[in-house]
Amino acid sequence: MTAHTGVHETRSTNQSPREDTLTKITLTGSIGLAGIGLIALAGPIAAQEFPERPIEFVAGYGPGGGHDTMLRTMARLIEEQDLVDVPINVVNKEGGSSAVAMGYLNARAGDPHYLMSITSSHIATPLTSNIGLDYSDFTPIARLGIDPELLVVNASSDFESLEQLMQAEDTLNVGGTATGSIEHIVTMQLAEATDLDLNFIPFQGDGEVVTALLSNQIDLAIANPGPVADYLDSDQFRALAISTEERIDNLPDVPTFTEQGVDITISLFRGLTAAPDISDEARAALTEMVTTLFETEQWQDEYIEPNAVVPLVITGEEFADYLGKTEEVYRETLGELDMLSQ
Amino acid sequence: MEALSNLMIGFGEVLTPFNIAIIFAAGLIGTVVGALPGLGPSAGIALMLPLTFGMSEASGLCLLTGVYMGTMYGGRITAILINAPGDAPAIITALEGYPMMQKGRGAMALGISAVASFVGGLFGLAVLIFLAPVIASYAIYLGAPEYFLLMAVGLATVMLLAGDSMLKAFFVTCLGVLVSTFGSDYVSGQIRFAYVPELIEGIDFVAIIIGLYGLGEVLYNLEKKVKLELGKPRFSIREFVPGRSELGEAAAPTMRGSVLGTLIGIVPGAGATVATFLDYALEKRISKRPENFGKGEISGLAGPEATNNAAVPGSLIPLITLGIPGSGGTAIMLGALIMFGMRPGPLLMTTSGDIVWAMIAGLVLANFFLLLSNILLIPVFINLLRTIQNNLANVVIALCVVGAFSLSYSPFNIWIMLIFGVLGYLFKKNDYPTGPFILAVVLAPLAENYFRQAVMLGQGSAAIFVERPISLTILILMVLIVAGSVFGRLRARKLREMRNPEE
């Protein structure tokens, strides 16, 4: 396949969701109204259609990682608060920078009983490999917030600050999840912004990254606050920088990259998407289920706070537009880094 | 002994009538689930998970760990009775257990493997109770180079499973490596041979095992009109409870298997599989009758079976000390811990120590229940098989189809199972060994990824394999083993020449 065809293909898939958007907005609007009417008139019948069997939450990364703990917390809280009357199972479809999970979800087109956690890899993987699927093939449900990236080192390391780290002359090993992940992008941006010689090593899940840093197999890791929080609390790891624009409340002592003179402000988004071609009623029901959850106090206490997620919820078409914009940013960054597949 | 007093507190929590009943039921459910081809610990724990809502943390975790332990006992049953192992570690069990079954000693094979499972499980638990923090603090120093070498050692056991023709074994190993390359690769993010979307996930090796062994065996037996040797419907205790001579023969291999299983069970991904294959290789190597292996040798059955069960507590060590799961089963356990509101990680034992100790106490109890029920149920299993004997082929095919479907709840894996069923039949008919094939399918992708990770960690240099002490030790051991066997062979040849100078 030539490069030309590749670009052309992606462009045409990019345009189609925009065209769809108009029709979908009107459709969702009217069906949404009709839906309310339906629920009021014949609630039990509508309830029988979806969900009719257990819902499956699909994590594209291994157990113990960000996707997995998020979905498991969601599943537990949704069951505790009776937001849905069927059980929820969490399955891990790890590998291929979320390509495996995308393939899995794509194979379930039209079935609303699957909800997949997505992060930036949902955008990046289709750009860096040839999986033939991208975000617009799926049904975006909601973004629940953004998740900053931390630069962490082992507490026994000589690096006390980012400034000190930037003086390093040897090639440094950097751990993160998967090639083309946001950790990878942060690493590349860091190497570009400084004179550092960084060697990125892809691991399968945050658990492996944490182990590698614990035993000094890598010099530093780029990771979300969640998986490293306990190690920061117990002074086994030290965080040298955070990728948000301003310091966050949970980690007030961790300086941002920008205040240390390195221009990196790229954060992971955390969101949910459903299988392709599900009915608008089902999409509305899924959105309703998760947004109700996001408003509860338990969700704030048990997920948002401990994981240092900045809770900026958007849903439906607004989320789809956000994904489109994110893709443009990624296409540019990955292109600069010469990582685009075609 | 702080660990012991903690364990006693754990027992105090567990020893209520409700919890004892739960552990007992969990063990039985686990045994049945594990016995069905395709349903392993992951499926068992996942199925039970919804039942634990509303239970106390301790009861819920006892239910899940009981099922986990039970599936490890159950996995041997179909492997021995109908040569249909449900998971990779049970393949070795089938290798020695099924020949015993064919000789009419199936009940004894079940008895011996139940005892070996019990000892292995208990040994692993003892290590978990007393040494978990120590082992975990060393285990983190294992990284990609060590894992790669372990996978390489595991792959080397292909030689021992080869059977008569080295060339045939080499051929099926290469075929296995090829099959394992299907699907996406997380190191590069690239996808290989994904002709249909389902293949993006790669081929599920459990579907391959079900086809190769379960369906392949049925097809072969139909052609040969094999009749199972089931003995009389009424059993004397001596036929299924191992006596002094059997136990004597099984004792040393069981102990060796227990140690190996606990240690290698810690390795993430394929710890239990590598451990059982390595233990089988070890037993064959030091056996006085290596020619009997593959024909129903007790030491080849007991050792790996102990290994298999010792790997369960082994894989729990990184989970409860670091919050890092080492296998599919412990991955779901991790989810359960999170759902019970605990935070798995380095501080778990400090923040929720009482619950973790209750769970460990529950595992000890489950292990005793499982030994008892698995021995007492042997006549039931055999007589169940007798009832369905005339329709055995149909029943096994049905189980294979259901098992394959349940892997991802899609018909795709049924097709995979059918394809590999036919392949298994052709392998068996033409005397191609299946062990090397499946070992390559399971280990080759892990070896590949760990190798690339290791070289990346070494920043492009393979020197990392000799710079790290543990990795160097494994390398030296590998060289010594190869040198030892070459030297041994040369010496044997020389001895023969000295005895028969005219040849």
UniProtKB/TrEMBL annotation, chain A:
Q: What is this protein called?
A: Putative tricarboxylic transport membrane protein
Give the family, as the similarity comment puts it: Belongs to the UPF0065 (bug) family.
Location of the region described as Disordered in the Swiss-Prot/TrEMBL record = 1-20
Output the superkingdom of the source species. Answer: Bacteria
UniProtKB/TrEMBL annotation, chain B:
Cite the InterPro entries for this sequence: DUF112_TM (IPR002823)
Q: Which Pfam families match?
A: TctA
Which keywords, in A-to-Z order, does the entry hold? Membrane, Transmembrane, Transmembrane helix
According to the entry, every stretch annotated as the DUF112 domain falls at 21-439
Q: What parts of the sequence cross the membrane? A: 46-69, 75-95, 107-132, 138-162, 169-187, 199-222, 316-340, 355-382, 394-427, 470-490
Q: What is this protein called?
A: Putative tricarboxylic transport membrane protein
Q: Which organism is it from?
A: Roseivivax sediminis
